Amino acid sequence: MNQGNPSRDGTPGGRWLLGLLLVVAVAYPLLVSSNYAVDVGMFILFTAFLGQSWNIAGGFAGQMSFGHTMFFGMGAYCSAILVVTYGINPWVAWALAIGVGACLGAAVGFLSFRFGLRGSYFALITLAFAEMFRVLADSAAITRGGLGILVPVRQGFDQLQFVDGRTFYYIALGLCLAGLGIAGWLKRSRFGARLEAIRENEDAARALGIHVLKEKIKCLALSGAIGAAGGSFYVQKYLYIDPHLAFSVARSVEMLLVTMIGGAGTVFGPLVGATVLGLLGELTRSLSDAQGLSLVIYGVVLIFIIAFLPNGLISLLQRRSRKAGGRNA
Amino acid sequence: MDFLLNAVVNGLMSGAIYVLVAIGLTLIYGVLHIINFAHGALLMLGMYVVFFLVTRWGLDPYLSLPLVAGAGFAVGYLLYRGVIGRFSHGKDENILLITLGLSIIFENAALFFFSAHTNIIDLDYTDDIFILGEIFIPYTKAVSFAAALVICLVLSLYISRSDLGKAIRAVAKERHGARLVGINVETVYALSYGLGIACLGAAACLLMPSYYVSPTVGHSFVLIAFTIVVLGGMGSFVGALVGGLIIGVAESVSGAFLGEQLGQIAIPIIFILVLLVKPTGLFRGAQ
Q1: Architecture in CATH of A12-328
Q2: Are A83 and A147 in contact (CB under 8 A)?
């Protein structure tokens, strides 16, 4: 489907650029004055982190999912239920939610892949899983049905609630960096190489002695853990979750979109996609208040990317840096 | 007992419309071997067309059926020629993503132009009911049941008898062989896609008198249609027919026993179970 560029950021120029971007990201909330701008930045970083969850399954291993919001929703509900109903500390709940997300990923992976579901069939079964969770969350007592769960306001570091939006921004930045770190590690590790082999040709990978089922389950567990971590963060930031927020098709699609548009199977793809789509969304919102316009544009961008730039926007940057590298050499 | 009987009959009635939605999907899958994720969004557009025909021009939904189905055929043909076939570079994942992109565009364009309101149409016969023993049957559902079955029959006769139908089946079975004997495969793809969307146009006309339309109404039909197609066997007409009726009844019965909310869980659970246990479905597909 796409090949990650092995030369990544090996060039000193690339490293400088990354350092500069990091400095800008750290300084951003101190430079802008409005809380709204900080929130926009936070949301971009957070979306990039969620996109990384999709990227690991759909990009690195080629297991395209249409229901990735199930991990997000599971993490969000775990956190909310543990904190509100059982009075567990939010930090502990966060860690537990990540564990539950990993287990869910492993379970979904085991069920789907053991029966040899591939390609479009896997996309459909994840869609069905997410829908099943939505219906369950809508009718179960523990999730309080359609009313959703409201987390009481108890500000303080130990409660993982902050008055200042900047604190959440920096947590989102940390999450995003962690996601990039995991993806970067995948690019270099043997595990990541095995996943890419499975993506390119599953039968050939099996013939080479790769335990395809085991690798795919591990991959979905990792992906699920990241998605659930995002869900937990969401609950602590917005202090509310309901079945529609947790398990909507729209969020699954958003996780897929940012990754596909940025560049699936690359380390920085989700971040590039989330930044571009986030800014595009802000731009259209400033032009028109009507709902739906920004998503129409996202859909058009998706089709154009698939038609003309199958490796995502990031391949534009890579092409340029390759050219520049060639000139230097 | 009447309670259960009523649920079963009602399920069969809605099942017939599901069959019509699913037959378009299974036709497209059987011939093009792609999953048309834009199916729900296109059905939604069809329903809006019917809605505006009724509210603006007072055209009866049942009378507008040939018109909407014909328009559906044209839209499907052009979509395949202009977007799906052209941009997918022959890769299945790309087609899946492009049809996803189309559904995002259609749904949000509908949201933009028509707002998120839920619309219903009010006809003289909307509330008419006839009673058969202990069973209550809404007039609109009975009409759509009969019409959906007739359309499915006509379509399968057309596919099995006509020249185009033969070409479609030839391409479905062996696309390279079909090309060698002089069939224009790309045209057959576009025509099949058009026929699939024409089914959606017909389904929209039959649905509207007893249903509502909103920009996201397609979502619920996407999962239902995929469940039917997978349950019946991808690409199989008989499978879509049997699967559609089964799903209609399952949905209605589980709704009757588990309640409005939890009853919806029947569809995703059947879907997951079929995919896990027998992903080839009940009947063998056209390929």
Answers
A1: Orthogonal Bundle (1.10)
A2: no
- CA–CA distance, A269 with A47 (Å, rounded to integer): 12
Distance CA B265, CA A70 (A): 15
Phi, psi of B267 (to 5 degrees): -65, -55
Cβ contact, residue pair A302, B116, below 8 Å: no
For the four alpha carbons of A11, A15, A20 and A22, in that order, the dihedral sign comes to positive
- Extents of the domains making up chain A: 12-328
Give the residue from chain A lying closest to B278, CA to CA.
A115
Residue A294 confidence (pLDDT) above 90: no
3-state SS, B194-237, equals HHHHHHHHHHHHHHHHHCCECCCHHHHHHHHHHHHHHHHCCCCH
Alpha-carbon distances of A247 from A31, A68, A136, A217, rounded to whole Å: 35, 9, 10, 22
DSSP-assigned letters across all residues of A154-178: --BGGGTB-SSHHHHHHHHHHHHHH
3-state secondary structure of A310: coil
Chain A hits for B226, Cβ within 8 Å: 124, 127
Cα-only R_g, chain A: 20
Subunit contact A124:B275, Cβ cutoff 8 A: yes
Helix residue spans in chain A (DSSP H) = 12-31, 35-54, 69-84, 90-114, 119-139, 165-188, 190-200, 202-207, 212-238, 243-247, 249-262, 269-287, 293-308, 314-328
At residue A150, φ and ψ (nearest 5 deg) are -105, 125
Check B262 against A115: CB less than 8 A apart: no
The answer to whether the Cβ–Cβ distance between A299 and B104 falls below 8 Å is yes
**Does pLDDT of B286 surpass 50?**
no
**DSSP label at A152?**
P
Q: Name chain A contacts of B223, Cβ cutoff 8 Å.
A: 127-128, 131
Which of B86, B97, B230, B234 is most worth mutating to test chain A (most A CB atoms within 10 A of its CB)? B97
Quote ipTM for the complex: 0.85
- Give per-residue pLDDT as tens, B234-281: 878 888 889 999 999 999 999 888 887 888 888 899 988 888 888 777
Global pTM value: 0.88
